[in-house]
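Field reference: sequence -> structure
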Amino acid sequence: MTATISTPIGPRLDTALGRFTMYRLVLWVLAVLAGYSLLLNVLGWLTFGLPEMIAHLALCLGLTHASNRAIAALFHVRPHSESSLITGLLLYFLFWPTQFSAGLQYLDLAGVALACVLASASKYALAWRGRHIFNPAAAGAFITGLTGLNIATWWAATPAMLWLVLPGVLLVLYRVRKVLMASVFTVLAVSIVSLELVRAGMGAGEALWQSIAQRPVLFFVGFMLTEPLTLPPRRWQQLALAAVVGLLFAIPYNLGFVANSPELALLVGNALAFTAGQRGRILLRFRGSRPLTPTTTEFSFRPERPLRFTPGQYIELNLPHGKADHKGRRRVFSLTSPPDSPELTIGVGTAEPRSTAKRSLLALEPGDELTATTVGGDFVLPQSPAAPVLLIAAGIGITPYLAQLSGDSAGNRDVVLLYLARTAAELAYAGELERTGARVIARLADGSAPPAFMQDAGAVRIDGATLKALVPDVAGRVVYVSGSPASVRSLRAAARRAGARRIHVDSFSGY
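Structure field:
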């Protein structure tokens, strides 16, 4: 008899979705939705006409992709093909397919074509220091609407489409960890729209259904509002943005030349987000690297201009290289250097087997240039220096703590660091940690002795009881856990069982 061992759905879903970049996942979900819309048309649940829908899809994808490549060549930059295809699919769902029953509707076609070209152009023309400010599909749709050639109808918001839009949106939101932000927007927008419909005489149940199934709330929040590149860096800023955009999305207004629309609400939100974050891409010049342990390496860069960040935040690097693997060219790394340092450093696990991104990092030569696209994250210390903290690091999870403990970042804060590694040789940044003066507890899996300044926790498994014994006042500390997803799940559970009430986590999913 064979026993079947089940695992929680969360870890399995993380593993499955972790194989895809954000771009690749959104592209696949939108492609499935496009195929589903064609099937609905064949079944008679949509009435656009199959030839019209296929022609509309081909126009949006083909023209967006072609115009993106042409404009990228004009600006002498490498085009991002997946991004252009996503924009094309979004525009496919934003504009009605042009009807051919009464002959070619040239103005309608011209409007869709203009939206495609404008969406591509917005990535380069409506940009600051190499970073686009506005969601391209929303920008293309809004400007096209001003010309009168065509207007966005967001036809994906139909009851028949809802049955696949909803799970697709939930997958994307789970992958980008924006469920809370999406919830704020959705609750606010649906509530306002439902109240307006009830005031107009509609029943409460019918008003709620129409708000969800026949308004583009879900499509908007899943594929456009939560796009990471146009979001502010901190969670509280993202939640505030969701509330503001929700109001602009749901409250009716007409200023004469513009009226409320999803695309206008999003563009206003994009502009607000741009003012809150690191404005523009940062050019980084590679300075050199050094081994930290047999399986980790530190990489150092000189930015062309100062980079604004809070200790504990991450940086996203664009690593152009041939034959990139399925996770693409962009990778996220915790910054290990303090904010006032003239150089930026990151610590990376470089054991075999190595991804294409890690191989491209190791192949860098001094003087080579990279671009940083995003700085963000909420894995930061409490604002009050009086709040004691417990930092738990598993392996390469030590990296976000370096900036927090170096210089004046930690101040006079009461800090305990629990560092888990396989062997003493795998304790990265040991010298830097000793200089911080923080209390460091090391748990080494092979039972070897850590450096003298570290307290030896032995090779015992870290569970609730063990953690409570090592840090008796854990319940009064703000706890931070960093490492691989499996390590984070185990250590977070241990911290909860030990009595911790405030726990922040940072997972390194592998790249």
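Note: The longest strand covers residues 282-293.
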